[in-house]
Specification:
Layout (H helix, E strand, L loop, with lengths): L21 H12 L24 E6 L10 H12 L3 E6 H14 L18 H26 L14 H8 L1
Parallel strand pairs: 1-2
Helix pairs in contact: 3-4
Length: 175
């Protein structure tokens, strides 16, 4: 067996362009590590069997701010994919990242003198602070996306609070 070399940190390099045979290398690596994989199927995994169908119900799943931008809404994407697989017309909308990007110029030019996604500023998403400091700037974005939601015309629009920091955003959207 080939002896493993110790990890040596290399100087930072510029990213290399993707090689044409990158998939081949990845597949070769998977084949090489396969003997070390568990030989049994994990027991706590739920299998989802879907029977394709065409349904009239349209579903839109939305994530409102404030949520960590480094954590995309995987749960909503998964639910949307399962709904699509079951024949529903389903869309997933990440208004958290849209609001994050929308507010960057306002932070840069000083219109907004804090970053709402800074963990030490979460209180700005609550009560009068939100209505005074954040909502007036975000309202045009919300109205633009309300029109796009109306165009999709969902039959089901589940709104849920993932954290206390987005309850006012969902509340405004619901009204």
């Amino acid at each position: 067996m080939k002896e493993l070399q110790p990890f040596v940190k290399k100087e930072a390099q510029s990213p290399r362009p993707m090689e044409p045979d990158a998939d081949t290398k990845h597949l070769a690596m998977l084949k090489a590590i396969a003997p070390y994989a568990k030989g049994i199927v994990q027991k706590n995994v739920t299998t989802i069997d879907l029977t394709p169908a065409t349904r009239k119900t349209k579903i839109m799943l939305i994530l409102m701010p404030e949520w960590a931008t480094m954590f995309p809404p995987f749960n909503l994407a998964r639910l949307s994919a399962v709904a699509k697989g079951a024949g529903y017309d389903s869309k997933c909308l990440d208004l958290n990242i849209k609001a994050f990007n929308y507010l960057r110029p306002y932070i840069k030019d000083g219109t907004l003198d804090f970053d709402p996604w800074d963990g030490t500023r979460e209180w700005k998403w609550l009560g009068d602070n939100y209505h005074r400091d954040i909502h007036p700037i975000l309202e045009p974005l919300w109205r633009e996306w309300i029109e796009k939601i109306k165009e999709f015309n969902p039959t089901v629009l589940p709104l849920h609070n993932t954290t206390v920091t987005n309850s006012l955003c969902y509340g405004w959207l619901a009204n």
